[in-house]
Design goal:
- One of its GO terms (biological process) is carbohydrate metabolic process.
- It is a single chain.
- The protein is α/β, with parallel strands linked by helices.
- It is built from 16 helices and twelve strands.
- The chain has helices spanning 24-27, 40-45, 58-73, 89-95, 103-118, 131-139, 152-161, 189-216, 236-247, 252-256, 261-267, 276-282, 337-349, 372-376, 379-397, 442-452, and strands spanning 17-21, 79-83, 124-129, 219-225, 228-231, 288-292, 296-301, 318-321, 355-359, 403-409, 428-431, 437-440.
- It has a seven-stranded parallel β-sheet with strand order 1-10-9-6-4-3-2.
- It is globular, with a radius of gyration of 21 Å.
- The relative contact order is 0.13.
- The protein binds 4-nitrophenyl beta-D-glucopyranoside (PNW).
- 4-nitrophenyl beta-D-glucopyranoside is lined by residues 23, 26, 129-130, 133, 225-227, 292, 294-295, 359, 409, 416, 425.
Length: 458
């Protein structure tokens, strides 16, 4: 029986892609293998041994060639993200990573290598996963690598909340303890980091378009993400607050070649300006926009937020009402209609771009008593996907939004950044106590029969 709002592959346009997302640092492990050098996440998650990174890694290239070939042989289309919150530690040590404009050339060199080595088989490229997330969480809240900007008391809370049992020693990052002391400047660094990601993104897109696209015939874009802000009250103030909140996610520069007025007016000299050449390069630097959608939050106008020291956290002058509803991490408030609202907003504001939903998902709560069986029978996760897909379908059929694919987060349980392995987003359960044995959850079966292999049901 088909529950109301159930969605099948055939409910979506011809050629619509369904997939599952993940990211290298979150699933690969292999910290000391295959010529892999340390990344900023090794440092953030635990002390590492100071090995130098950089240069061309033949073992790494061979690894990804094998992976790509295996996936293609299984009939899987690849969408490759070049950098998901992760860069070599060496670049951070040398010039401060994304804090410096030097990151652009290094990123372009890396992108060039990937296009040249893998572009014959990879037809979808994404430069960065959420420049706003890295700027905000890595340099403002300090909750992801490199962990700058946060006050020291917050570091303490964060560290103790995520300590793991000492027996989880099979892979270095899983013994996560966030040990960074507070550093940086949350009022300026996030905007530098955002700016440099936009420039590095645009330069990589330019390279792809000039040197590869006509022969390789791929598409290139960027992931943007924001918790969808719903005005707390239907007043002009709260509506403006919601608009500011979304303004800060860095989409405007990609479309208009400049930051929105709300950012420029309020941030003044804390915001970098684009030269006219840079503006031209950034403007239109995407074939598609990939959007992550997990949740929504109420926002209210909070002018008083401007009174404290400048910080990316308070700069939009909004207060978030994060009252919880549904399962999962405390930040996930289940609001499926938000995916339709978000799509319509992007369609109208940015001239109906091609959109892919690059992540949508929910995790098991960090309850230590959670049993394997409870994880495996994840009806609530299936319901989460189905409800979001229903609203996504409406965005297409009722609003004409040009959405061309939907990817769940995540393929398997993984290293969930600051939550380490205590949070499970996967469709496949990873048994960390039994050699990483994989157990498909109900949601994996749902994905298979309903989205990939519906013919089996009819
Ligand atoms: C995602 N938001 O980030 C990351 O891309 C994944 O690597 C991660 O595993 C996943 O979250 C689950 O935590 C997000 O503002 C950042 O709504 C911000 C938002 C959502 C997801």
């Amino acid at each position: 029986p088909v529950v109301p709002g159930a969605t099948f592959r055939h409910d979506f346009p011809e050629g619509f892609l369904f997939g599952a997302s993940t990211s290298a640092f979150q699933i690969e492990g292999a910290v000391d293998e295959g010529g892999r050098g340390p990344s900023i996440w090794d440092t953030f998650a635990e002390e590492q041994d100071g090995k130098l990174s950089g240069g061309r890694n033949e073992e790494g290239i061979a690894f990804y060639n094998n992976l790509i070939n295996e996936l293609l042989a299984a009939g899987i289309i690849l969408v490759v993200t070049l950098s998901h919150w992760d860069i070599p530690q060496g670049l951070d040590d040398e010039y401060g990573g994304f804090l410096s404009p030097e990151i652009t050339q290094d990123f372009v060199d890396f992108a060039n290598l990937c296009f040249a080595e893998f572009g014959d088989r990879v037809k979808f490229w994404i430069t960065f996963s959420g420049p706003w997330s890295l700027a905000y969480s890595g340099y403002g809240a300090g909750t992801i690598a490199p962990g700058r900007g946060v006050s020291s008391s917050a570091v303490e809370t964060f560290a103790s909340r995520h300590l793991l049992p000492p027996d989880l020693t099979f892979c270095r990052p899983y013994r996560t303890r966030i040990h960074r002391a507070a550093s940086g400047d949350p009022g300026t660094e996030p905007y530098l980091v955002g700016h440099h990601q936009l420039l590095a993104h645009a330069a990589a897109v330019k390279l792809y378009r000039e040197n590869y696209q006509s022969t390789q015939n791929g598409k290139i874009g960027i992931i943007l993400q924001q918790i969808w802000p719903v005005p707390l009250t239907d007043t002009e103030e709260d509506r403006a607050a919601a608009q500011r909140s979304i303004d800060f996610m860095f989409m405007d520069p990609l479309y208009y070649g400049d930051y929105p007025d709300s950012m420029k007016d309020f941030l003044g000299s804390r915001l970098r300006t684009f030269t006219s050449e840079e503006s031209q390069m950034v403007k239109g630097s995407y074939d598609f926009i990939a959007l992550n959608y997990y949740t929504a939050t109420y926002v209210r106008d909070a002018p008083e937020a401007a009174n404290g020291p400048p910080s990316v956290i308070t700069d939009p002058r909004v207060e978030y009402e994060t009252e919880r509803d549904g399962g999962g991490s405390s930040w996930i408030r289940v609001y499926p209609a938000g995916i339709q609202e978000f799509m319509v907003y992007v369609k109208e504001k940015y001239d109906n771009p091609v959109i892919y939903i690059s992540e949508n998902g929910i995790d098991e709560t960090n309850d230590p008593l959670l049993t394997l069986w409870e994880s495996l029978t994840d009806h609530w996760r299936v319901s989460y996907y189905q409800r979001h897909l229903s609203y996504l379908r409406r965005a297409i059929t009722e609003n004409g939004v040009n959405v061309k694919g939907y990817f769940i987060w995540s393929l398997t349980d993984n290293f969930e950044w600051g939550e380490s392995i205590s949070s499970r987003f996967g469709n496949v359960y990873i048994d960390y106590d039994n050699g990483h044995k994989r157990n498909p959850k109900l949601s994996a079966e749902w994905f298979r029969v309903q989205l990939l292999n519906e013919a089996a049901l009819r």
